[in-house]
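Input record, target 12 of the design panel.
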């Protein structure tokens, strides 16, 4: 038995901010930020000698009430080190104990990397609602993206989201980083296609020059056009441009509501296709419209929570 696209929960992931787990100043500022999700990082941003300290700092953040006090709707994700690394097993236990919304697995090369983490979580009786995100950031990961994404379709699967690790892809392949990402884009589209084939969300990689607002805006716009749900970020100043680029335009919402209202009419409830505004609209358009409306409602609720705090 497989899960349908519509069975997945709708969550806005326009802006996903990385924060080193041991950066106390950044953690203190988190309640005032408007990112949709935050990734508490135990991997790349933490030096080998600081892994234990970062893990303990993360445990404290989740146990002393600070994590629970974050804005309503802000998704909490923990990036662990790979299980094959010296720190992976301890990271996974710590992340499991923190009870985040999701655990992010780095450098996923094959479905077995997802299975290993799922098996470890099942052995610790982790709640079914604990999701997994996967970093696709190696040549093997790109080549196997479809097989990895297929893991989301089995019963009990936890896989929920792909993140493209563009810096690692550039390093591993040696391609030149140019404006517009001409050499990287074909691989990014492969990852988007794999995610969409199995109903996963998919997030674009980071933009390294956080002072280049125009460059970030262009890359966000390009990423949205490529089909990404949002962008991973390295600095709070990047949140607003990402929220704008990956947000829902008013005209999109108006059209979605018109589709939903048209299909809800008594004369259309048993029809698979209708005429609306001079074009044919199918049930697949209704499904897309309903998900967009739900996402818009969640964004509105998220913004209301920010204003309340």
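The sequence produced for target 12 reads:
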């Amino acid at each position: 038995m497989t899960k349908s696209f519509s069975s997945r929960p709708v969550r806005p992931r326009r802006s996903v901010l990385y924060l080193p787990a041991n950066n106390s100043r950044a953690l203190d500022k988190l309640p005032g930020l408007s990112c949709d999700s935050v990734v508490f990082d135990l991997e790349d941003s933490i030096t080998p000698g600081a892994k234990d300290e970062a893990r303990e700092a993360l445990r404290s953040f989740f146990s002393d009430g600070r994590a629970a006090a974050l804005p309503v709707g802000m998704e909490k994700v923990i990036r662990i080190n790979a299980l094959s690394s010296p720190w992976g097993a301890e990271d996974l236990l710590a992340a499991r104990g923190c009870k985040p919304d999701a655990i992010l697995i780095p450098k996923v090369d094959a479905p077995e990397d997802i299975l290993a983490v799922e098996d470890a979580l099942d052995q610790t009786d982790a709640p079914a609602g604990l999701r997994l995100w996967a970093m696709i950031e190696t040549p093997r990961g790109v080549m196997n993206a479809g097989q990895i994404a297929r893991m989301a379709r089995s019963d009990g699967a936890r896989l929920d989201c792909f993140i493209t690790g563009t810096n690692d892809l550039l390093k591993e392949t040696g391609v030149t980083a140019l404006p517009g990402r001409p050499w990287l884009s074909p691989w990014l589209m492969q990852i988007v296609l794999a995610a969409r084939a199995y109903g996963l969300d998919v997030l674009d990689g980071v933009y390294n020059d956080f002072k280049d607002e125009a460059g970030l805006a262009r890359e966000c716009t390009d990423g949205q056009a490529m089909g990404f749900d949002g962008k991973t970020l390295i600095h709070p100043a990047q949140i607003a441009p990402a929220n704008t680029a990956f947000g829902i335009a008013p005209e999109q919402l108006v059209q979605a509501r018109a589709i939903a209202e048209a299909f809800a009419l008594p004369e259309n409830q048993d029809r698979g296709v209708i005429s609306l505004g001079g074009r044919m609209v199918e049930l697949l358009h209704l499904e897309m419209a309903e998900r967009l409306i739900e996402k818009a409602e969640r964004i509105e609720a998220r913004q209301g929570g920010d204003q309340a705090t």
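Residues 283-308 form the longest helix (26 residues).
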